[in-house]
Amino acid sequence: MREAREQVLTANRLRDGEVVYWQGGAWVTTLAEAEIFAEKSAAEAALKAADRAVQDRLVVNPYLFEIRREAGAVRPIEEREVIRAAGPTVRLDLGKQSSEAFDVSL
Q1: Four-CA torsion 29, 33, 37, 41, nearest 10 degrees
Q2: Does any domain span residue 54?
């Protein structure tokens, strides 16, 4: 049986399509700010609470994904989430990749 991993709740902000992450009932724009759920029940409760933001047309498609902690940073397990956390893939001078805080050695 596989060990349960920590999770983060994500969605897309409806206003501009930005990838957002759940933090204590609000949405933040960086994975580093995201609330990390160690317990499945807490993660499921947050996902259920995010339904309100969908009803209010603030976000679309909230879901949970697994992360790992590596060298003091939060890293997505799946490649899809690595890409979503980095922003657009077309140019490195746009989006989150242009930030000095973005570590391209994921």
Answers
A1: -50
A2: yes
Which residues have a Cβ under 8 Å from the Cβ of 44 and sit 6 or more positions away? 64
Q: Which residues of 38-47 are buried (b: 16+ CB within 10 A; e: fewer)?
A: eeeeebeebb
HSE, CB side, 13 Å, CA atoms: give it for residue 51. 5
Provide the residue range defining the domain that includes 40: 7-98
Please report the pLDDT score of residue 106 as a whole number.
45
Residues 31-54 have a mean pLDDT of 97
pTM, to two decimals: 0.81
Domains: count for the chain: 1
Q: Answer yes or no: are the C-beta atoms of 65 and 75 closer than 8 Å.
A: no
Q: How far apart are CA 75 and CA 72, in angstroms?
A: 10
